[in-house]
Design brief:
Elements (H helix, E strand, L loop, with lengths): L2 E10 L3 H12 L4 E4 L8 H4 L3 E2 L9 H10 L3 H5 L10 E5 L2 H13 L8 E4 H8 L7 E5 L3 E2 L2 H14 L3 E3 L4 E7 L2 E6 L2 E10 L5 H7 L7 E3 L1 E6 L9 E4 L5 E4 L5 E7 L1 E2 L6 E2 L2 H14 L8 E6 L2 E3 L6 E4 L6 E5 L5 H18 L31
Parallel strand pairs: 1-2, 1-11, 2-8, 4-14, 11-22
Antiparallel strand pairs: 3-7, 4-6, 5-6, 9-10, 10-11, 12-20, 13-16, 13-19, 14-15, 15-16, 17-18, 21-22
Helix pairs in contact: 1-7, 1-10, 3-10
The protein binds flavin-adenine dinucleotide.
Flavin-adenine dinucleotide (FAD) binds next to helix 1, helix 2, strand 13 and helix 10.
Amino acid sequence: MTRRIDCDVAIIGGGLVGSSAALALRGMGFSVTLLDKGFCGAQASGVNYGGVRRQGRPPEQLPLSQRSHAIWPRLQQLIGIDGEFLRSGHLKLARTPEDMASLERYAAEVAAFGLDLELVGHNQLSERFGIGGDVIGGSHCPGDGHANPRLVSTAFAAAARRAGAEVLENTRVIGALATSGGFALEAEGVAITSRTLINSAGAWADSFAAAFGETVPLERTYPSMIVTEPLDPFLTVNIGIEGGGIYARQVARGNVVVGGERAAPLADPDYSRPRSDGALTIMQRASELFGPLRHAQAIRFWSGTEATMPDRNPVIGPSATTPGLIHAFGFSGAGFQIAPGVGEVLAELVRDGETSTPIAPFSITRFSPASQPGGAPSPTTTG
Ligand SMILES: Cc1cc2nc3c(=O)[nH]c(=O)nc-3n(C[C@H](O)[C@H](O)[C@H](O)COP(=O)(O)OP(=O)(O)OC[C@H]3O[C@@H](n4cnc5c(N)ncnc54)[C@H](O)[C@@H]3O)c2cc1C
C-alpha cells in the first residue's frame, strides 16, 4: 500500500546539500521530507576527497563559501560530531613563473573577502611544509582545511532526522508535478505532497529541472581518489596545485588521500571505475613532491559521480518556471565545503523568498531558453 505524506518542504536528494537544508529547515519549524534513492551521503557527498577549501574558488562563490567557513568549526554542536574537520590550511603550489603569477593575481583579486592568503617562496615551502620537487612557490590559506566526508554527510542526515525530518532512504523519486497547492511527488512506496520542493539530486538533478521546463547543460564527471597505508606524519596542510593535476592531504591516522585524475564511466553512467594508469599517474606526481610517498602502498581506489556545469558554478536559487521549486545542484567538484552554507541559504529561500547571501550568479536563468537555442520542453514528470 502506498504511504502518503503531506509536508511543507520535500527535498529530492540526501547528499550534503539536501541534508543540510533539511536540518536548517527543521530549525525554522518546517515539516520536511528528505528522499534519497540510496543512502543519504552515499554519492558525491560521502566519497569525495574531503577538501574544505575556499582558496581557488571564483570570487562570486566566496560570500557563500565564507558563510560555510563559519559553520565547519561548529559541526560538533550542529550534527553531534566534528567530522574530523581540521583547519590545517590549504597550500596551492606553483610549478612555473606563470602559475605563480596566477596565484599572485588571485590573491589580489580576492583580498577583500578575508581569506588572508599568504604567498610563499620556494625556500619556505621546504622549511615550513617539507615540500620538495619542482615547485617554485605557493599560496597558503591558513583557515582552510579538510574533513572526513564519509562521516560528515551521513551525520547531517542523521541530525536532520533527530530534529524531526522524515528521512526516507532507498526511496527513489520517480516523478514530480506542480499542483495548485504546491507539488505532488511519486516515489517508491510513498506519495508526497508539499508546498515547496527542493531539487538537490546532484548528478541526477538535470532530469528534475527538465521536468519543469528548465534544461541545463549538466555533465557527469568522475574524480578519481587513492588512499595510502598509514605513514608517519609528514604533511600538515591540504595541498593543491595551480592548474590542477594533484591534491593531497594526510589524516590523523597517517593515511594520505590523493586525487587529481578522472575515472572512466561504465555503461551505466551512474557508475565509474578508476583507471589504473590514472592511479599510477597520481601517485607518481605526488611522490615527486613528497618523498615518503615513493614507497607507500596504495590501499584503496575509488571515484564518485559529480554534477559539473560548463561555467563551474552551481545552480542555486528559485526555478524560473515554477513557483515554490528551488534548485541546488551542479557543484562542479567543489560542493563539499560550501554545502552547509547552501543548506542555510535554501532554508532562507523557503522561509523568506530571499537570502542574505548573494546567489544571483548561480541562477538557473543563465541557461534559460532566452540565452540557449532550441527552447525548453513542456513541464511533465521525470524518471
Ligand atoms: C571523488 C570526488 C571528490 C571531490 N572532492 C571534493 C573536495 O575535496 N572538496 C569539495 O568541496 N568538493 C569535492 N567534491 C564535490 C562534492 O563532493 C560535491 O559537489 C557535493 O558533495 C555535491 O553534493 P550534493 O548533495 O549536491 O550531491 P550528492 O552528494 O551526489 O547527492 C545527491 C543525492 O541525490 C540522490 N538522488 C538522485 N536522484 C534521486 C532520485 N530520483 N530520488 C531520490 N534521490 C535521488 C542521490 O542518491 C544522491 O545521494 C568531490 C566530488 C567527488 C565525486
